[in-house]
TrEMBL record:
<dbReference type="GO" id="GO:0004844">
    <property type="term" value="F:uracil DNA N-glycosylase activity"/>
</dbReference>
<protein>
    <recommendedName>
        <fullName>Type-4 uracil-DNA glycosylase</fullName>
        <ecNumber>3.2.2.27</ecNumber>
    </recommendedName>
</protein>
<keyword id="KW-0004">4Fe-4S</keyword>
<dbReference type="GO" id="GO:0051539">
    <property type="term" value="F:4 iron, 4 sulfur cluster binding"/>
</dbReference>
<keyword id="KW-0408">Iron</keyword>
<keyword id="KW-0227">DNA damage</keyword>
<keyword id="KW-0234">DNA repair</keyword>
<keyword id="KW-0378">Hydrolase</keyword>
<comment type="similarity">
    <text>Belongs to the uracil-DNA glycosylase (UDG) superfamily. Type 4 (UDGa) family.</text>
</comment>
<dbReference type="GO" id="GO:0006281">
    <property type="term" value="P:DNA repair"/>
</dbReference>
<keyword id="KW-0479">Metal-binding</keyword>
<dbReference type="GO" id="GO:0046872">
    <property type="term" value="F:metal ion binding"/>
</dbReference>
<keyword id="KW-0411">Iron-sulfur</keyword>
<feature type="domain" description="Uracil-DNA glycosylase-like">
    <location>
        <begin position="38"/>
        <end position="189"/>
    </location>
</feature>
Amino acid sequence: VDVARQAAQSAGSLDALRTALDAYDHCELRLGARNLVFADGVPGARVMILGEAPGRDEDREGRPFVGRAGQLLDKMLAAIGLSRTAEDVSRAVYITNVLPWRPPQNRDPKPEEIAMMLPFLQKHVALAKPDVLVLMGNISCQAALGQRGILKLRGHWSEAFGLPALPMTHPAYLLRQPHAKREAWADLLSLSARLGQGR
Ligand code: URA
């Protein structure tokens, strides 16, 4: 973790942070991954979305949220006028994950892996400078809030890395449990209302 902290601290830009991650070889996950999955969307966007870890599709493409969960995420964002390709930063999102490498067989990240990569995440948020964070699922809440229990946390604004943060159920969960989409919709409206206030 000390090595990670040093590597992360010395990065003065998002590009430098990506390079530092690429050079960081103390996390075993990278051995089983094809690609580093750093981020997607618009740096400088008001909303930063934090997922869990790359899956198979993300690992192949080197971009976060490009598989089925990512397609659902894009639809959810579009419903409140947000997108990862918008030119206007107030309509754009920036997307990353707690872990930049795919865990073998998509297993859950281990607490040590989350802790090891946390300095990079912290720095990533500081460099991206969003107004708000959206924490997708348990792993994201674990990393950013130090808490699990997404079904209780979701929909309640909290604070992470010094920013307002909204926990939501992960889109992969919504694909398995479509009935939970009603609550996710309420959470999207809460996000939209928050953004409306700050405009
Ligand atoms: N699930 C995540 O949490 N992140 C991704 O990038 C893809 C799926």
